[in-house]
């Protein structure tokens, strides 16, 4: 079942850090000024035209001089993007070790990566990347072990920017439907092929957005989308999501709207999935990113009516499986950390629910496979996994290889072996095979990454936020690191939308660690690490808690000698980009470098673009109340850039085709910073062309992006040379 819904200095004395990074630092105010002047190197920013747009909120006038940058279809905006990128890349060309970082990223990335296998019909499928391929390739083997390429997304476009976004097979595995994303867009095309011959069977489905592909038998599938917006496909508001059924062999124009066509069924996010036995269609409807209504339809009965399971959005609830008419649901209704309940489909409302696996003090994530339930619990953001049978009896705790994050154990009911991956910040992901009957685990696929994990350590600490709340943080670095305050450090955070940051390895982080950097991840309020209460504590009128948690993380790292203000960089993307924007405008003295990526930065207008109104559960909106307007305006990064303030070296990053968090957020924030920066630190915006919010980004582009991000960061921390990376 489908669930609902990261300085070239001269004349200064240099000291070699234990990390291996050679940094130059002055001891006097004059030296510091010299460093800043060398960093800035008299940058000439493009002049960004100021318009005269003024909005009225509760009789308060709010100027929006860069409103014109919201028009992604205008030639003026396109010219602005081109000019900004020229300034940014001219600046990055000064970084003497930028190519060295890029080369090391490519070298470390260049190893074979293979996914867990899965069976569809007569074949076993898996994803594989030979090393530096822009996109993973789908392979398959037959019963005789013969291997062939099934789908190669690297051939979808010459530059690798068209990616495979979804792949789903009919119940007998004979037909496949796959979705592609072009240029990183959330708008997708669905292509239907004969799985045996790989021949396209009909015209692609177009204009599909925020959708799964859920098959009903072998006849067709359910998918979701919006009406195509008028004006800009990138930024126009999309407000009413609809669930469609596509019957094979018919035109998309004939696809039936199953849910969402009427005002009574209006939701911003609608998803539909079919139970594994083809018995029920399950429909989830949500008006925001938290909370959903739930409905079922008995597909075994002709003309059956839609039955309401939940008629409110006070919880996140979904059906994970069924046995005949017995439904198994995962819910946080009256259970902030989630539990599993059962109910008969004939009387499915919540007053009939019976606890199956009760709520615990830790947050639950559940899956099924091999005829069992698997419950993963986050214990201070670290995985523990248990196996249950369908009577609710605990079979065993799964013995994990160490302290870190395990992916879900899931699969078909008939599977005898399930697969899961295990990783943490310093350990490349390894795939394990799990025998559901015996509980034995064996290594299936070891990572081929040439990274010496034993040379590094990850340490979890707890630090107090401004109000005394204890916040967990995992700090990863080379063993033997001297806590002398001179270590380049990236502090990463998110803090929103019930998202949990759990330990995971990445090549980009590994290269930062190899260069002697510290990587710290704080599990802020607003996330899901401690359940719904933790999430709520970082939403709407409590959003400042998230920023306070992040600021306190930076202060902890400095107080304990891990780093100092001159060697601290803060980083986050999307909602994490908002986090960085808010913290750098509230405490510009805290960090040396700020790296807000694809951020939500205009908090007064975010809800007017694409599906942004659905984020109001976390943020609230400026029209909601005068109190909420004042609160949002009080931290909105675009509205809190102050003249006469020295901001840290900043590189804003975004994609020109981001239709999740439209690039206008980043454009306006960068324009404000460039206009008002009083210090010498550079303020850049790096705009990736033909790229979206991040998913499906080609490997080549990712390597270039991180070479630029790390180069910019170290250059502005005073690093002159890098260690020999190998």
Brief account:
With 726 residues, this protein is α+β, with helices and mostly antiparallel strands. Helix content is 18%, strand content 32%.
Describe the structure.
- With about 725 residues, the protein is an alpha+beta fold.
- The strands form ten sheets. It has an eight-stranded mixed beta sheet with strand order 34-35-37-36-38-39-40-41, sandwiched between helices. Strands 5, 6, 7, 8 and 9 form a five-stranded antiparallel beta sheet that branches. Strands 10-11-12-13 form a four-stranded antiparallel beta sheet, with no helix packed on it.
- Strand 23 (about 325-330) and strand 24 (about 340-345) form a beta hairpin.
- The two termini are about 45 Å apart.
- Residues about 1-40 have low confidence and may be disordered.
Please render the helix and strand layout as text.
Blueprint: E1 14-16, E2 22-24, H1 29-40, E3 54-57, E4 60-63, H2 75-92, H3 98-109, E5 113-114, E6 118-120, E7 123-129, E8 137-141, E9 147-151, E10 162-169, E11 175-182, E12 187-194, E13 205-209, E14 214-216, E15 220-225, E16 242-247, E17 256-259, E18 269-274, E19 280-286, E20 293-298, E21 307-310, E22 317-323, E23 326-331, E24 339-344, E25 354-357, E26 363-369, E27 372-379, E28 382-388, E29 394-398, E30 405-406, E31 417-424, E32 427-435, E33 441-445, E34 456-464, E35 470-478, E36 489-492, H4 507-514, E37 518-522, H5 532-536, H6 544-559, E38 568-573, H7 575-586, E39 593-597, H8 616-619, H9 626-635, E40 649-655, H10 664-676, E41 683-688, H11 699-716, E42 719-721
Parallel strand pairs: 36-37, 36-38, 38-39, 39-40, 40-41
Antiparallel strand pairs: 1-2, 2-42, 3-4, 5-7, 6-7, 7-8, 8-9, 10-11, 11-12, 12-13, 14-15, 15-16, 16-17, 18-19, 19-20, 20-21, 22-23, 23-24, 24-25, 26-27, 27-28, 28-29, 30-31, 31-32, 32-33, 34-35, 35-37
Helix pairs in contact: 3-11, 6-7
């Amino acid at each position: 079942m489908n669930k609902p819904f990261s300085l070239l200095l001269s004349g200064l004395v240099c000291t070699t850090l234990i990390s291996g990074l050679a940094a130059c630092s002055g001891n006097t105010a004059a030296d510091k000024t010299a460093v800043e002047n060398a960093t800035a190197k008299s940058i000439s920013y493009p002049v960004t035209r100021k318009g005269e747009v003024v909005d009225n909120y509760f009789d308060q006038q709010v100027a929006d001089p860069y409103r014109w940058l919201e028009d992604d279809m205008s030639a003026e905006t396109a010219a602005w993007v081109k000019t900004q990128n020229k300034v940014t890349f001219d600046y990055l060309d000064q970084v003497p070790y930028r190519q060295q970082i890029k080369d090391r990223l490519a070298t470390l990335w260049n190893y074979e990566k293979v996914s867990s296998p899965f069976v569809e019909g007569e074949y076993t499928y898996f994803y594989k990347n030979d090393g530096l391929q822009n996109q993973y390739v789908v392979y398959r083997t037959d019963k005789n072990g013969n291997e062939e390429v099934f789908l190669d997304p690297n051939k979808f476009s010459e530059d690798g920017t068209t990616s495979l976004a979804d792949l789903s097979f009919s119940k007998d595995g004979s037909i496949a439907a796959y979705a592609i994303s072009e240029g990183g867009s959330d708008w997708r095309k669905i292509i239907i092929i004969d799985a045996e011959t790989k021949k396209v069977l009909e015209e692609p489905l177009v204009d599909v957005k925020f959708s799964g592909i859920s098959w009903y038998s072998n006849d067709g599938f359910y998918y979701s989308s919006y009406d195509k917006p008028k004006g800009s496909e990138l930024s126009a508001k999309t407000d009413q999501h609809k669930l469609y059924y596509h019957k094979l062999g018919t035109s998309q124009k004939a696809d039936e709207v199953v849910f969402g066509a009427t005002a009574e069924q209006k939701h911003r996010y609608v998803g539909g999935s079919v139970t594994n036995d083809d018995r029920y269609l399950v429909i989830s409807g949500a008006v925001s990113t938290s909370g959903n209504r739930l409905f079922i339809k008995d597909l075994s009965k002709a003309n059956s009516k839609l039955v309401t399971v939940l008629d409110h959005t006070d919880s996140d609830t979904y059906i994970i499986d069924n046995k005949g008419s017995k439904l198994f649901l995962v819910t946080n209704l009256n259970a902030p950390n989630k539990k599993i309940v059962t109910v008969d489909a004939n009387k499915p409302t919540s007053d009939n629910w019976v606890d199956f696996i009760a709520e615990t003090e830790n947050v639950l994530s559940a899956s099924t496979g091999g005829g069992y339930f698997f419950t993963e619990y986050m214990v201070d953001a670290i995985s523990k996994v248990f196996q249950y049978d369908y009577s609710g009896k605990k079979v065993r705790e799964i013995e994990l290889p160490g302290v870190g994050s395990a992916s879900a154990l899931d699969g078909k009911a008939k599977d005898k072996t399930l697969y899961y991956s295990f990783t943490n910040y310093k350990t490349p992901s390894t795939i394990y095979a799990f025998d559901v009957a015996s509980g034995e685990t064996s290594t299936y696929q070891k990572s081929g990454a040439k990274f010496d994990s034993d040379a590094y350590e990850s340490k979890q600490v707890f630090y107090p936020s401004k109000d005394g709340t204890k916040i967990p943080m995992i700090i990863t670095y080379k063993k033997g690191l001297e806590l002398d305050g001179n270590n380049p450090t990236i502090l990463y955070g998110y803090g929103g939308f019930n998202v949990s940051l759990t330990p995971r390895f990445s090549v980009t982080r590994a290269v930062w660690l190899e260069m002697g950097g510290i990587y710290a991840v704080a599990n802020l309020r607003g996330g899901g690490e401690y359940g719904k209460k933790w999430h709520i504590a970082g939403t709407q009128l409590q959003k400042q808690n998230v920023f306070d948690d992040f600021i306190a993380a930076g202060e902890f790292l400095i107080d304990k000698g891990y780093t100092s203000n001159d060697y601290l960089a803060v980083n986050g993307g999307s909602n994490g980009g908002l986090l960085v924007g808010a913290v750098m405008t509230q405490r510009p003295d805290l960090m040396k470098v700020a790296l807000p990526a694809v951020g939500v930065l205009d908090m007064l207008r975010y809800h007017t673009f694409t599906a942004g109104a659905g984020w109001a559960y976390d943020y609230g909106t400026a029209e909601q109340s005068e109190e909420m307007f004042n609160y949002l305006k009080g931290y909105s990064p675009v509205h809190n850039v102050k003249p006469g303030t020295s901001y840290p070296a900043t590189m804003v990053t975004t994609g020109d085709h981001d239709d999740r968090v439209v690039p206008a957020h980043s454009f306006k924030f960068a324009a404000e910073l460039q206009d008002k920066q009083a210090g010498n630190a550079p303020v850049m915006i790096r705009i990736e062309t033909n790229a979206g919010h991040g998913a499906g980004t080609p490997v080549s582009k990712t390597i270039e992006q991180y070479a630029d991000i790390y180069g910019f960061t170290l250059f502005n921390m005073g690093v002159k040379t890098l260690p020999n990376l190998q």
